[in-house]
Specification:
The complex is a heterodimer of chains A (about 675) and B (about 230). By secondary structure, chain A is mostly helical. In chain A, about 70% of the residues lie in helices and about 5% in strands. The chains are: A mainly alpha (about 675), B mainly alpha (about 230).
Chain lengths: ~675, ~230
């Protein structure tokens, strides 16, 4: 018996059962909650098992499921790349399903839990189908199932105007992207004469140069909308925060990775060697997305929106790896390309895990305090210590600090970019160190941003009643986060043993096995494959950090036991009575960066003071500060206005008069007749 | 009585009657009374049936007699009767108010006839088919079609548009008969049934429009626009 296949279809059936449970439990929310998320958990575990087994086998498994309709056979393909993304999906879906048991519970009786569970299962099903689709037709169907169920989940709290606006924006941009994909797939199908992905393998590189460019750009833009690359990212910071937090976690963790999966599929399967400019385009887009993503994240005070901007940043980092891999591959450096590809793919999984963790943490915070505004939080580490710990682990991981998983993949990306300097011709030679430097800047800014996010939310004193009365998350929510936090640690410390997972993928895409070159000392350390590159051991760093923690204890044991001791409040400079008003605010913390990058932000601030007697004694001060939404103002608004102008001109054609319509037909007929006579 | 067997003579008879059909069509454009319009239509349909009968006689195609008979029954009697009853029932003004005034309409109809002859001529290849009956008839059929269409554009009331559609349909019938010497019977039956049902449905629709808008002026359908 084929266990991979059994597990795969078992998971599929579990998701379907979960969706059915959502419909069946329409009137019994408790049953709907347990049924839908229970089935989703079972499905996730089965899919994870299938993915792990498929990766262990290494070969490509493909089955065709006939639909009974001619031309509509559903081909499932579980090759190493699909299995890898399915593994990430399985881990996330399992953790989020466990989290949801507790998270969704307060919604019972107040909201439609059945619908939430139904669309949640459908979203997971759609994602799984996207990752495993073996032909273009089925891929696009799965893509739409994913997009539409995600839309329904985004507008779950549809009574809010903000939510509806965000949902509409998501829907429009998502479908525009699908339109581009459709054109690109049709161009491919025209060239191959089939819709099967197997027939697309390496095909794009055999086409004429213009067509190659067109197909590459169409795919890149189409998948880029879903991945949230700048400048087609605007739906992402709008839609992710307004969804329920467990959904945000899935969307930001894995749904945007569907775009990354699509790019990997196109660039490393459909293309055998993409043109160099395409690799450069991917690389440049990655750099811009990473840098602008983190810069906008720094200015956010909405915890979930901040995380959403970080998704853009991390997608940028992943694309840096991909872009570098493309350039290296075309130039014939397959080992280096393998390094860059592994960096990108590893960061995909890592980002999925820590971003999911952070969104779940943010969900717990919102759950406990009832607000998303960081300025109203503060001091949450006392009422919610476990959430704070998990959030901190996620924050360390996303900031790329050793020894957690974010560090490993960002380190690999650096190594790939810096190695590019040594081997490429002049123009690209200049590009690589610059991108490396910008990646460093991005990582530093990300660290600053998470110092802000963690410090303002969890440390200091509560800044509002909400924060003062916050409560800890329920055990199932903590369990969900705990799994992901453990994943962050394991993928960081155990990177050396995890890297062989990528061998089948790089073998298929580039024909090289990269993990032996990347691991040293039996997996205890990582080494970049090129000669003069560095070596690093996350486990060693972790050991050193642990030793550093022991050092103060030793010092205290040696000298401190007999010394004098005074206890007092920290930071009050001997002036007791600190209040929340003394604490750093998020706005204040990000002020230096707002000033340094004011050319980009174009900040606007307004201070209005009201006074009665003298300007020195104001009775009320109103302060307002905002940054300019550059892309909305300079790209999207003109585009929308132009579209509306054209539409209103065209509207005059639609007079609504039968005579006018008849006259159109009549005149057309006469002209066609006369043309026919002449021709 | 040998002219009864002479195809040349038959061609002339058919062309003459076709000319009358065209004249009646232009008369409909110029005629402002609704009831008169319906009666002119009935006369036109009767002439059309006669053309069909003549073609059947001179080409020894007996099944066209059936088409001719159906035309008389459906278009010369049943449809005009239904339409006149409808006019009585909905009590509208019996005067047609075209959008373009009558003299200009007639000039336009003349122009459309020219277009039709231009188009019809391109189908005429005397050297290839010496016995092609009445290329003039095809031109007339096309002008019936075009003028019928023009009447639909030009008239405000739904009922008069129904009438215009029927004239247009007459053009299609004439074209079919003179090009193919009659389509298969089942097609003919289908067409007639179609016309009858079409008129009934349109009659009901006109009645409903009148009920809803208290007018039959389709210009008022504008209000349905979003």
């Amino acid at each position: 018996m084929d266990w991979v296949r059994a597990a795969f279809f078992g998971g599929l059936i579990a998701y379907l059962a979960g969706a059915a449970a959502g419909v069946a439990g329409y009137r019994t929310p408790r049953l709907a909650r347990l049924g839908t998320f229970g089935c989703a958990l079972a499905g996730a575990l089965l899919e994870m098992t299938a993915a792990v087994m498929a990766l262990a086998q290494g070969g490509a498994a493909a089955w065709t499921v006939p639909f009974g309709v001619p031309l509509l056979a559903w081909t499932v393909r579980l090759n190493p790349l699909s299995a890898y993304f399915n593994l990430a999906l399985g881990i996330l879906a399992a953790a989020v399903s466990i989290y949801s048991f507790g998270y969704v519970r307060p919604m019972e009786g107040r909201r439609n839990v059945g619908a939430l569970g139904f669309f949640y299962n459908l979203l997971l099903l759609g994602l799984m189908a996207v990752f495993t689709a073996g032909d273009a037709f089925f891929f696009l169907v799965a893509w739409e199932v994913m997009a539409v169920s995600a839309y329904c989940l985004v507008v779950f709290e549809h009574e809010k105007e903000e939510t509806r606006r965000a949902g509409m924006m998501f829907l429009i941009m998502s479908h525009a992207g699908t339109g581009l994909l459709l054109i690109a797939f049709l161009l491919m199908a025209q060239a191959s004469g089939s819709l099967d992905f197997a027939s697309f393998h390496g095909l794009a590189s055999t086409l004429p140069a213009q067509e190659q460019g067109l197909i590459g750009v169409l795919f890149f833009a189409g998948f880029g909308v879903k991945a949230g690359i700048i400048p087609i990212h605007v739906w992402l910071p709008a839609a992710h925060p307004v969804a329920p937090s467990n959904i945000s976690a899935i969307m930001s963790g894995i749904m945007i990775k569907a775009g990354i999966y699509g790019m990997a599929l196109v660039f490393f399967d459909f293309f055998s060697a993409a043109p160099v400019w395409m690799g450069m385009l991917v690389l440049a887009t990655g750099v811009v997305s990473a840098l602008l993503g983190v810069l906008y994240a720094l200015m956010e005070h909405d915890l979930k929106r901040l995380l959403a901007y970080h998704s853009i940043e991390n997608i940028g980092i992943i694309l840096m790896g991909f872009g570098a891999a493309l350039v290296f591959q075309t130039m014939g450096h397959n080992t280096l390309a393998g390094l860059a590809l592994v960096a990108g793919l590893y960061h995909t999984l890592n980002h999925a895990i820590f971003k999911c963790l952070l969104f779940l943490g943010a969900g717990s915070v919102v759950h406990g305090t009832g607000t998303r505004n960081m300025e109203e939080m503060g001091g949450l580490i006392r009422p919610m210590p476990v959430t704070a710990l998990f959030f901190l682990i996620g924050a360390v991981a996303i900031s790329g600090l050793p020894p957690l998983n974010g560090f490993v993949s960002e380190w690999l990306t650096y190594q790939a970019l810096l190695a590019g300097f040594g081997i490429t011709p002049l123009l690209t030679r200049v590009v690589f160190p610059i991108t490396g430097a910008l990646l460093a800047l991005t990582a530093a800014l990300a660290a600053a941003c998470f110092v802000k996010a963690f410090g303002i939310s969890f440390l200091a004193l509560p800044k509002s009643e909400h924060a003062a009365h916050a409560h800890e998350a329920t055990p199932s929510m903590l369990a969900g986060m705990g799994i992901l936090a453990a994943g962050c640690v394991a993928l960081g410390l155990g990177a050396g043993w995890f890297l062989p997972v990528f061998d089948p993928i790089t073998t298929q895409a580039l024909g090289v096995r990269i993990s032996p070159a990347l691991t040293a000392a039996h997996g205890f350390a990582l080494a970049a494959s090129s000669a003069h590159a560095g070596t690093v051991s996350p486990l060693g760093i972790a050991g050193l950090l642990a030793a550093l923690a022991v050092l103060p204890a030793l010092l205290w044991l040696a000298w401190g036991r007999n010394g004098a001791r005074a206890t007092g409040a920290a930071w009050d400079c001997g002036q007791p009575g600190l209040t929340a008003a003394n604490a750093y605010t998020a706005t204040g913390f990000s002020k230096p960066i707002r000033m340094i990058f004011s050319a980009l932000y174009r900040p606007r601030r307004e201070i209005q003071a009201e006074y009665e007697v003298s300007p020195y004694y104001p009775t009320a001060i109103r302060f307002e500060s905002e940054i300019e939404p550059t892309f909305e103002k300079h790209v999207y608004d003109p585009f929308r206005d132009g579209l509306l102008r054209i539409a209103s001109r065209l509207r005059t054609v639609q007079a609504g008069s039968i005579h006018a319509y008849l006259a159109y037909i009549f005149v057309t007929l006469i002209i066609l007749l006369l043309l026919g006579v002449r021709g | 009585m040998d002219f009864l067997q002479n195809p040349e003579f038959g061609d002339r008879v058919v062309t003459l009657m076709a000319a009358f059909v065209l004249v009646l069509q232009i008369a409909m454009v110029g005629q402002r009374s609704l009831v008169m319009n319906i009666r002119v239509f009935a006369a036109q349909s009767f002439l059309l049936a006669s053309i069909a009968a003549a073609i059947a006689w001179y080409n020894h195609a007996p099944h066209i007699y059936f088409a001719a008979g159906m035309t008389v029954i459906v278009k010369a009697f049943a449809v005009p009767y239904l339409l006149e009853r409808l006019v009585d029932r909905i009590e509208i003004r019996h005067e047609i108010e075209p959008i373009v005034n009558v003299p200009v309409s007639i000039v336009i109809s003349g122009g459309l006839t020219l277009v039709a002859y231009l188009v019809g001529a391109s189908f005429y290849h005397p050297e290839a088919e010496p016995r092609s009956l009445g290329h003039n008839t095809l031109a007339v059929a096309i002008s019936l079609f075009l003028i019928g269409f023009f009447m639909m554009v030009n008239r405000r009331k739904a009922l008069t548009q129904v009438l215009a559609l029927l004239c247009l349909e007459n053009g299609v019938f004439l074209a079919a008969i003179c090009l193919t010497y009659g389509m298969p019977l089942i097609v003919e039956l289908g067409v007639f049934f179609d016309v009858l049902v079409g008129v009934m449905v349109l009659g009901i629709l006109v009645y409903r429009i009148r009920e809803t808008f208290e007018s039959m002026d389709v210009s008022k359908l504008r209000r349905l626009r979003g």
